Amino acid sequence: MSVASLVEEAAARGITQMALTDINNSTGLIEFMRECDEQGIKPIAGIEFRRDKRLLYIGIARNREGMRELNEFLTEHNLEKKPLPDRAPSLVNAYIIYPFWYPGELNPNEYIGIRFDELNKLYGKDLKALKDKLVALQPVFVLDKVEYRLHEYLRSIDLNSVLSLVKPEDKCLPTDMFLPPGQMEAKYSRYAFILDNTRELMGRCVMDYPRGRINLNRRTFTGNKKNDRELLEKLAVSGLEYRYGKNNKEAQRKVRHELKVIYELDFCAYFLITWDIIRYSTSQGYYHVGRGSGANSIVAYCLRITDVDPIELNLYFERFLNAQRTSPPDFDIDYSWDEREDVQDYIFKRYGSQHTALLGTMSTFKDRSIIREIGKVMGLPKPEIDSFTDPRKAAENRNNPTFRKITAIYERMSDMPNQRSIHAGGVLITEEPITYYTALDLPPKGMPTVQWDMYEAEKIGFDKYDILSQRGIGHIKMAVKLVEDNHQRKIDIHQVKAFMRDPKVNAQLKTGDTIGCFYIESPAMRQLIRKLDCEDYLTLVAASSIIRPGVASSGMMGEYIKYHHAPETVNYLHPVMKEQLEETYGVMVYQEDVIKICIHFAGMDGTDADILRRGMSGKYRSKKEFDRLVERFFSEAKKLGRPDDVVAEVWRQVSSFAGYSFSKAHSASFAVESYQSLFLKTYYPREFMVAVLNNYGGFYARYLYVHELRKAGARVHLPCVNNSDSIVNISGIDVYLGFVGIHGLNETFINLIPEDRRENGCYVSLEDLIKRTGIGLVQVVILIRVGALRFTGKSKKILLWEAHLLMGAKVRVSNEPELFAMEAKNYSLPVLENTRLENTYHELELLGFPVSMSSFELLQTNYRGEIGANDMINHIGQKVKMVGWYVCEKTVRTKTGKLMWFGSFLDVEGNFFDTVHFPNTTTEYPFTGAGCYLIEGKVVIEFGFASIEVFQFGKLQILNNPIID
User: For the segment 748-790, what is each residue's pLDDT rounded down to a tens digit?
Assistant: First the structure.
C-alpha cells in the first residue's frame, strides 16, 4: 500500500493512531506524518529491523530524537556493511519491540510484541513477569486478498522465482491487513492488558517534528548570517567589475536588487556554498559549466558560478528565486566525467558526513518489459512470453486469457516503487544532522545516500546542489591542455563573450561544421543550424531549445525557422501572443514562454502557471492538482473573453511544448559550452578532436572523429609501441592512436608499455619489448597485427614467426637494462609481406575502423555516384544516385505508428549529406549496418538545406578478406 492509501484507509476505519515501520528503511517517515496530519490521525514512526528475512526487532521512536537514534543505528550498519545484531542497542528515546517469544532479559524500554494468532501460546503460562511488557502487533502490508496476490507477484519478481517456490517466510501473512472495526478488541479480549500496554506506549510517543516545508538547509556559510551577507555582497561587487567593468549602471542595479531578494529569502548560504564549491574546483584546475534556472541570476554570473549574462539575454531573476516560487531553486554544476567525484568528496569533507548526503531516486514499474517479468514468475515458456511482448501480435493477444491476466497484474503494478537508486547529481547539505529525516544507504557510488527522492526532499524542506558530469567538459578541458602543450598558448576558456564576437567562429557555426562540439554536433542540430543560417549566440540559444522533441512534434520548429527568415510575415494567434512572444516570432521556445502565456493569455497567477509548467515536464506528481489547473487555464481564458478556438490552439501548443522545453537560462548555458567547443574546433581542430577521442561520449562512432582529424590536416598513425600512449596523443600534426582503443589488449599492457618506454627508453626490437614488459603471446600477436611494431621494419608475418619462436623459448623478463645484451638467434625465413588490404582487415577487427585504406577504397566497384554532397544544391527536384559512407541513422515513428528513418552519410570527398526514408521504402530497403551504400532518390530542399528523399538503396560489396581467403 502507498503511504497515502494506507492513511486514507486507516481514517476510513476510524483509526486514531498508528505507527509506520518500514523494513530496514525510513523512506516514508515524513510523508506518513504529513498524510496523518491531513486525516486527523496521530502518527508514530519507527523502523522494522530484519536480517536474512527474519524479524529481529521493531524500533518505535518516542520523538524526533528517537527517530534519529534509530536512523543512525541503521545508517551505521548500512555504511559499514555490518549485519544487524540479534539484540538492539540501548537507545534513550526509542522503544524496542521483540517478536514473541524473546527469551532474553528486557531493558526498561524493551517490549515483546504478540500477534492475535499467537495468543494461544500464552495459555497456562505465568504472565506476572511479562504482564507489563506485552504489546499488540497487527502488521498491515496489504489492503485485501487481491493486493495480497499482487504482493506475491512482487516478492516473486524480487526473488527471481516462480510463484509456487516463494516460501511463507519470503512474504507477509494473509492476515497482515486492517481488521474490521472492533475485531482488534475482540481478539485480545481475554488479555485486555495487552491493549492497555499498547495504548500507553503509543501515548508516550510524540513526533515533535516541525510541520510543513521549512528551511532545513545549511543556514550559514561563515557561522554568522551578518557575515554571510557581507561576504556575499563583497564577492558580488568584486565579480561585477570582472564581468561588466566599473560603470555599468544596469548591472549594478540588478545586483543590488538580487542581493536584497537573496537576503530576504535567506539564501545567502546557498549562494556562498555553491561559490565555495566552484572556488575549490577552480583551484584544482577543473572546468565547470553552471546551468539550470540559476543562470537567470546576475549574482551567480558575478560569482562565476555561471557564464551566462542575464542582461544580454533579458533573463528574469524571479524565474530562479522569488517569494512565490513553489519549488526550491537550484544550480546545476557540470564537471568533466573524471573530476566530479573529487568535487563530491570535497563537499562531504568540507560540510561533514552527518550533514551531507547524495540524493536518492525511486524507479517505478513503468516499462512494458514488466510483462516479461510477470510471465517469468508465472512459469511461462520463453516463446509464449516473447509473443506477449511482440507488438505485431497485439490483436491476437487481446483474446488470450493468460495475456489478459498478465495485463491486469501489470496495470495494478504500474507506477509502484521498484527500487531505490541515486539521483543524477543531487547533493544535500543540511543544518542539523540529516538522520533526523532518513537513514542513509551506501550504494555502489560509495557515498552516503538518503532514502527518498527529490520530490520528497522538496516537500520536507531541502534544497539540493546538482553536481553533474558530462563528457563535453572533458573535451574542452583536455583540448585546452593540448593546445598549451602543442602551441605554448594558454586559453581562458571562460572568456566566452570574445568567442561569441569572433567572426571566424561564427562563420564556422553557420556552415554546420560542428562535429565534436557540445550539443551541436548531431545531424538534427547541424541541419537546424544550417536552416537558420545560425551565426550568433542568441540564435543558437533559441536553437538549443527548439531542437527539443516537443517543439518539433507540435510543428512549431518549422514555424520558427520560417518566421526567422521572414519575421514580417508572422500571423499572431492573438495580440497577447505578439506582446509576449515577439522575440521568438509568436512561437513558444522556452519554459518561461509557457509561464508568460499562462499568466498573460489565460489570466493565471504566477504560482499556478509555474506548477502547470512543471506538471507538463513530469516534475509535479499530483495529477488531481494538475487537472484542476488545466481546467483553470480554460476557464480563466474564457473569463477574459478569449475565443474558444484560439484558446484550444494555444493550449495545444502549450501542452505539446512544455514537457520537453528548456528554460532560457538552461539553453543559454548549453550555448555557452557550445561556443567554448566551437572556438577550440575553429582554431585548434586537431587538438580538439584528439580531446574528443580521448573523452569518448560524443554522438558518433570513433572513426568519424578520426576522419575529422584527417580533414583538419593531422597525420593519423596506427598505434606504435614507441610513439603511442594509453590514449591518443598529438605532437605537431602527428597523431598516434592510443592502446586503449585496441580490442582485446589487456589493461595492464595498455598502461605498462608507455610507462616503461618513458622510464627506460624506446624499444629496440620485439624481443626487447617482451623482456621488458613480460607480455604474453596472445597480447604480442594483437600488437603485431595492429601494426604497433612496424618500427622494426619487418612485416607482420615475419614478426608473428619471431614471436612464436621467442615465446617458445624461455625469455628472461626484466624492465632493467641489460649490462650485456645478448642478441637472439636469427633464422632464415622466406619473404613474407603484408598487403594494404590485409592490414585494413586487421584494423577493422582490432580498432573497429580502417586507417590504411578508406571505406571507399574497400569497395569492389569504382563507382562513386553521379554527384557529391556539395553538388546537391544544383539538382533540386532531380533524381540522382549517390554513394555514401554510413555515419548514423535515426528511427522515428509517424503519427500512424509506421517506421521512417533519417540517415547521415559521407561522400568520397568526406562531405556530409543526409537522407530521409519514408515508410513506403523502409521495409524493402532497410539499413543493414556500417558500410558504403548506393543511394537513389530525389534531392529536396527545406530552408536552404538539401537532402535526399530515398527511393531505394542498398549496401555495396567490399573486397574479400584475403586473410580468410
Answer: 999 999 999 999 999 999 999 999 999 999 999 999 999 999 9
Helix axes 556-565, 523-532, angle to 10 degrees: 30
CA distance 443 to 78: 9
What are the residues whose beta carbons fall under 8 Å from the beta carbon of 339, sequence distance 6 or more? 281, 284, 286, 469, 477
Nearest to 716 by CA among 695, 684, 689: 689
DSSP 3-state assignment of 143?
coil
Q: Which of 701, 587, 706, 573 is nearest to 649 (CA)?
A: 573
Question: 363 is written with which cell numbers?
Answer: 524507479
SS3 content of the chain, % helix, strand, coil (to 5): 45, 15, 35
Do the bridges between strand 288-291 and strand 332-336 make them parallel or antiparallel, or are there none, so unpaired?
A: antiparallel
Q: Where are the alpha helices (DSSP H) in 414-553?
A: 454-460, 471-487, 496-501, 503-511, 523-532, 537-546, 549-553
Quick one: which of 303, 304, 309 has its CA closest to 234?
Answer: 303
The separation between CA 309 and the C-alpha centre of its own chain, rounded to angstroms, equals 26
Closest CA to 543 of 530, 554, 7: 530
Query: What is each CA distance from 284 to 5, 31, 239, 495, in whole angstroms?
Result: 50, 41, 20, 19
Residue with cell 542582461: 311
- For residue 820, give every residue at least 6 positions away whose Cβ sits within 8 Å of its Cβ, in sequence order, or none: none
Which residue has 537576503 as its cell numbers?
A: 263
DSSP label at residue 958: B
Q: Give the pairing type, strands 932-942 and 54-61.
A: unpaired
What does the pLDDT read at residue 661? 65
Rounded alpha-carbon distances, angstroms, from residue 154 to 19, 52, 132, 404, 449: 24, 18, 38, 18, 25
Mean of the per-residue pLDDT values of the chain: 90
Distance CA 129, CA 132 (A): 8
CA 63 to chain centre: 37
Residue 596's pLDDT is 84
> 874: which 3 cell numbers?
544544383
Asked whether the CA dihedral 432, 438, 442, 447 is positive or negative, the reply is: negative
Let me know if 877 is exposed, middle or buried by CB neighbors in 10 A (0-12, 13-18, 19+): exposed
Sign of the dihedral defined by the CA atoms of residues 564, 569, 575, 579, in that order: positive
* Segments of 173-321 assigned E as strands: 288-291
C-alpha cell at 197: 500496554
| 890: Cβ contacts below 8 Å, ≥ 6 apart | 523, 524, 901, 902, 903
- Please report the beta strands in 641-728, taking only residues with DSSP state E, as ranges in sequence order: 715-717
| Model confidence, pTM | 0.82
Query: Which alpha helices (DSSP H) does 547-605 contain, by range?
Result: 549-553, 556-565, 575-581, 591-600
pLDDT value of position 213: 81
Residues of the chain with pLDDT under 70: 323-328, 391, 550-554, 607, 616-625, 657-661, 809-832, 964-965
Q: Which of 330, 287, 182, 300 is nearest to 239 (CA)?
A: 300
Residue 338 CA from chain centroid, whole number: 15
- What's the pLDDT score for residue 214? 82
Percent of the chain past pLDDT 90, that is, above it, reads 68
440-441, strands of its sheet edge to edge: 288-291, 332-336, 464-470, 417-429, 356-364, 449-450, 440-441
Amino acid type, 489 = R
Residue 946 backbone phi and psi in degrees, to 5: -95, 145
Crossing angle (nearest 10°) for helices 623-639 and 606-616:
130
Distance from C-alpha of 613 to C-alpha of 338, rounded to nearest angstrom: 34
Residues in the chain: 965
Q: What is the DSSP letter of 489?
A: -
In this prediction, residue 964 carries a pLDDT of 67
